[in-house]
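Lab channel / #folding
Pinned by the channel admin:
"Please post every new chain as: sequence first, then the structure tokens as a reply. Keep commentary short and put observations after the output so the thread stays searchable."

First post following the new format, from NK:
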Amino acid sequence: MSAFRVAVKELWGLFVEDATLTIGTLVCVALAAFVLPRVGIPTHWRAPALFIAVALMLLENVYRASRR
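Reply from TO:
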């Protein structure tokens, strides 16, 4: 069981290096999918809004990582 746990942890680490970045990306996608249509943002502005949100989140993550 220990070897299985280590293997799963390594596999998880392969795809998810920074959990806050992963959670933030999922939140941005969820907001774009569920909140933006209900707020009334036109369809042609939804993709740029998602891009800006993900880019800002990535910049914040890079800034936080550089301060470590």
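NK: DSSP finds three helices and no strands in the chain.
TO: also worth noting, The helical segments are 2-15, 19-39, 43-66.
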